[in-house]
Design brief:
The complex is a heterodimer of chains A (136) and B (84).
Chain A: H1 2-9, H2 32-61, H3 76-100, H4 106-129
Helix pairs in contact in A: 2-3, 2-4, 3-4
Chain B: H1 2-43, H2 49-66, H3 76-83
């Protein structure tokens, strides 16, 4: 793991995003129309935020594979794990998007948002474990 | 000897940074529209279909890069297993 961190640490990408866009603790309440609109906005923001680690991951995957004569390279095993994490995050957020765009039920929408937030957090944890970092 | 080694190491990092620069610029260009989209939707009542489509397109484009296997190599364990 240490050698991976060495290679990946060279690619510590920091992306500044306004913290005001954070969705943590976002709850749904109000009329069904408002709830649906807020649910859609929440998932849209969550999905937008998910694109940032994805972009950093894409940049890492685009590097030449280790070992390289240069100091910066991508470990193949890390790339494999990053792809799995990326798919897990996508599957969760796409499912949440489908739910909030088709339901007006508050509980269903909130459950979809919660599930997506958890899945995204897990996927982001895997990316950071492999040295891909950003700030939000 | 140490000075030569240090210079070689510095040269490697400078070369690596130069190689990475275009990718970092491209990354910045990808992120700006994302942030703009987030800010725009934050001011609206609900995201429009066009905004969802644009976000989906962004996701698809990034996935194409992440899942591009053209640069892949066999993992060390796979090579060892194949050799065995």
């Amino acid at each position: 793991m240490r050698h991976r961190t060495h290679h990946l640490g060279a690619l510590a990408l920091t992306i500044a995003v306004l913290t005001s866009l954070s969705l943590n603790g976002c709850g749904l309440a109000g009329t069904s129309s408002n709830v649906n609109n807020r649910a859609q906005t929440s998932v849209f923001q969550l999905k937008s935020g998910w694109q940032l680690p994805k972009a950093a991951a894409a940049t890492y995957v685009g590097l030449p594979r280790c070992p390289q004569a240069t100091a910066i390279c991508a470990d193949q095993k890390a790339v494999d794990q990053i792809r799995l994490a990326n798919k897990a995050g996508d599957d969760a957020i796409d499912a949440a998007e489908k739910t909030v765009r088709t339901t007006a039920d508050q509980d269903t929408a909130q459950a979809a948002i919660n599930a997506a937030q958890s899945a995204i957090a897990a996927a982001e944890k895997i990316l950071t474990d492999y040295g891909i970092t950003w700030s939000s | 000897m140490n000075a030569t080694k240090t210079l070689t190491t510095v040269n490697q990092y400078v070369t690596a940074a130069a190689q990475l620069l275009p990718q970092l610029i491209a990354l910045g260009m990808e992120i700006v529209p994302l942030i703009e989209g987030m800010l725009t939707v934050a001011k609206q009542d609900v995201p429009t279909s066009d905004q969802w489509d644009a976000l989906d397109a962004q996701e698809t484009a990034l996935n194409a890069r992440i899942n591009d296997t053209s640069g892949d190599v066999a993992a060390a364990t796979d090579i060892a297993a194949g050799a065995g």
